[in-house]
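Progress report, Aim 2. The chain analyzed during this reporting quarter is listed below.
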Amino acid sequence: MKNKAKIKSKNAHFCYEERVKIEFLLNDKTSLSEIARRLQRSKSSVSDEIKLNSVKGVYTAKKAHLKSYQRR
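Predicted structure tokens for the chain:
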């Protein structure tokens, strides 16, 4: 039987450390599927995070965290 990684709950917010990892992996040209796997998140959650919190098409952890905080 294949062992599946546990995916975080649907309502869990991305923390700053996860955003730093997303930024690093995007700069390293890592696919969304691979980023999601490494963070144990769904691909759609990672995609939504990038779309919602990018500034002028560029995702940076610091700005993404600030945008998310301001919306909350």
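The chain has a mean pLDDT of 90. The helical segments are 16-27, 32-39, 43-53, 61-71. These observations will guide the mutagenesis work planned for the next reporting period.
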